């Protein structure tokens, strides 16, 4: 969690500038900010020779480019049209159209231009150059839609200045060993999508992502996917977890406990080039929203994944599998919605067009044998008695090992959505024998629209049940965790079958009756007589005062 107030203020000012520019849709605004972050970032990456594996010894800014010139406008702005002047203009036009050094396309160069000149330069020279680069950030989408939509020179100038100030403050923090990174910055920018509520996207809270990653414990060499990746949170969480494990294997000083009491990556943590390539090729995301694809790619890049693999694809209408299966899938698919049955991939056999249910089947199909999945589902998925709901629950119980069902408190996804949800964790290939249930009542944040972190009276962070669920999950005992009056317990498959595969925690929870000490009738009457005498006495005293 970003704690630098100066950076936070710059980010708020950045968003205010976008609102003033007319970007009422936060998704369009973040896409514009994303592209400018990308332009700023590639210069830094280029300096470290990290951007292109096939050109690791050169610079993407080496060579020349042909500057854009609107010839009609150029001549029209030249003044009168006497022969001598026209000839001079034509000669000047020839000169201005000659190739120029690509160093002019660097952020550090054009940020010094006058606002109007900078807007034209970015729009007509920098953007085409960026779109020509061999980057997955750009290859993944329709480049014709990647255009500069900021038309006000003053706003563009303010936005570039603010981005510069954010990165400068980040450098100051890191010199002071605060250990923030560009990923923290971008996550803070992305948080405004939720606050605005304009995009319709339901972004998974980062502490919930960290919880799931900690429970599944991904490792180097595993192929990990998210078929509805959104801003890329689960892929980033998996990458951070793996890099953390690699970095502390020989150097314990790289271990950092973050705001949510999960381990994060130190900026000093180093991984080998081979590890970086392995990770880049192991993490794959898919999304049907081209805006989210670009945002997730930028987010992954800002978190150190230099050539991320996120594809613009509808996970339900196209076959993602082919010959590729995954060791691990983590996802938070849409909580509602339907899809035209004619567009559903024929490999999905569930007789329904409900999106949440189809994603459960898709994720099951994406797994290798013994592959593990964690998926966030709407609460009604656990108990709805409609045929398709029962069938998908039966499939997970009978054809996979349903490891755990974790009920989340209502309000986790506020302010975007108030729907109650749960986490299903299952492994493909082994039939279920027992399933572990845990009711998370408190996630360490208020459950209102503000979702503020909670603190104890002494000022220390209150993490709610998150630490407890991790500890209990990793030390669960199928023989002893059978007290159904507690916050967690095991349920036999036999019980699940008999309950029509109902996976609701409350279905199996034993509610113990409170013990009351009953009085005898004699004691009750004695107590009533005492009270009556006391009342009569007080009435007599009151009469004496008033009459």
UniProtKB/TrEMBL annotation:
The enzyme's E.C. designation: 2.1.1.72
Family matches, as InterPro entries: D12N6_MeTrfase_N, DNA_Adenine_Mtase, DNA_methylase_A-5, SAM-dependent_MTases_sf, T1MK-like_N_sf
Pfam family membership, one: N6_Mtase
Catalyzed reactions: a 2'-deoxyadenosine in DNA + S-adenosyl-L-methionine = an N(6)-methyl-2'-deoxyadenosine in DNA + S-adenosyl-L-homocysteine + H(+)
GO molecular function: DNA binding; N-methyltransferase activity; site-specific DNA-methyltransferase (adenine-specific) activity
Domain DNA methylase adenine-specific: residue ranges: 182-512
Residue ranges of every copy of the N6 adenine-specific DNA methyltransferase N-terminal domain listed in the record: 8-159
Biological process annotations from GO: DNA restriction-modification system; methylation
Keywords: Methyltransferase, Restriction system, S-adenosyl-L-methionine, Transferase
UniProt signal peptide: none
The keyword S-adenosyl-L-methionine is assigned to this record: yes
Record's keyword annotation contains Transferase: yes
Record family assignment: Belongs to the N(4)/N(6)-methyltransferase family.
Name of protein: site-specific DNA-methyltransferase (adenine-specific)
Species, as recorded: Chryseobacterium pennae
């Amino acid at each position: 969690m970003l704690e630098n107030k100066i950076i936070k203020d710059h980010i708020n000012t950045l968003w205010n500038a976008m609102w003033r520019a007319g970007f009422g849709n936060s998704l369009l605004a973040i896409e514009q900010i994303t592209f400018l972050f990308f332009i700023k970032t590639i210069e830094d990456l280029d300096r470290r020779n990290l951007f292109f594996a096939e050109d690791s010894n050169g610079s993407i800014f080496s060579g020349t480019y042909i500057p854009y010139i609107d010839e009609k406008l150029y001549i029209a702005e030249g003044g009168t049209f006497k022969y001598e002047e026209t000839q001079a203009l034509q000669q000047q036009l020839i000169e201005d159209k000659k190739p120029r050094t690509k160093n002019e396309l660097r952020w550090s160069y054009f940020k010094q231009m006058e606002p109007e000149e900078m807007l034209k330069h970015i729009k007509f020279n920098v953007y085409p150059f960026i779109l020509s680069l061999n980057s997955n950030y750009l290859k993944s989408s329709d480049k014709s839609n990647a255009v500069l939509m900021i038309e006000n020179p003053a706003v563009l100038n303010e936005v570039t200045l603010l981005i510069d100030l954010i990165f400068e403050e980040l450098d100051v923090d890191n010199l002071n060993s605060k250990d923030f990174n560009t990923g923290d910055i971008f996550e803070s920018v992305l948080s405004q999508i939720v606050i605005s509520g304009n995009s319709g996207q339901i972004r998974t809270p980062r502490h919930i992502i960290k919880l799931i990653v900690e429970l599944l414990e991904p490792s180097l060499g595993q192929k990990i996917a998210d078929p509805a990746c959104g801003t890329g949170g689960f892929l980033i969480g998996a990458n951070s977890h793996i890099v953390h494990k690699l970095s502390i294997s020989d150097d314990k000083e790289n271990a950092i406990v973050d705001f949510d009491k999960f381990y994060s990556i130190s900026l000093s943590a180093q991984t080998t080039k081979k590890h970086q390539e392995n990770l880049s090729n192991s993490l794959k995301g898919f999304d049907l929203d081209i805006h989210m694809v670009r945002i997730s790619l930028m987010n992954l890049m800002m978190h150190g994944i230099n050539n991320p693999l996120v594809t613009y694809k509808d996970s339900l209408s196209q076959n993602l599998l082919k010959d590729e299966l995954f060791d691990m899938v983590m996802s938070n698919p849409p909580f509602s919605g339907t899809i035209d049955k004619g567009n559903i991939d024929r490999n999905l056999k569930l007789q329904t067009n409900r999106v949440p249910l189809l994603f459960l089947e898709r994720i099951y199909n994406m797994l290798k044998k013994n592959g593990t999945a964690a998926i966030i589902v709407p609460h009604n998925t656990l108990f709805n008695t409609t045929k398709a709901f029962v069938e998908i629950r039966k499939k997970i119980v009978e054809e996979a090992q349903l490891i755990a069902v974790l009920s989340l408190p209502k309000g986790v996804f506020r302010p975007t959505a108030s729907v109650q949800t749960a986490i299903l964790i299952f492994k493909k290939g082994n039939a279920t024998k027992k399933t572990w249930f845990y009711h998370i009542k408190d996630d360490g944040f208020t459950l209102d629209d503000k979702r503020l972190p909670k603190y104890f009276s002494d000022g220390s962070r209150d993490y709610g049940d998150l630490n407890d669920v991790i500890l209990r999950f990793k030390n669960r005992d199928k023989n002893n965790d059978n007290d159904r009056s507690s916050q967690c317990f095991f349920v036999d498959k036999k019980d699940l079958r008999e309950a029509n595969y109902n996976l609701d925690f409350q279905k199996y929870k034993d509610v113990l009756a409170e013990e009351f000490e009953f009085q005898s009738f004699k004691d009750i009457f004695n107590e009533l007589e005492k009270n009556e005498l006391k009342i009569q006495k007080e009435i007599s005293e009151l009469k004496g005062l008033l009459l």
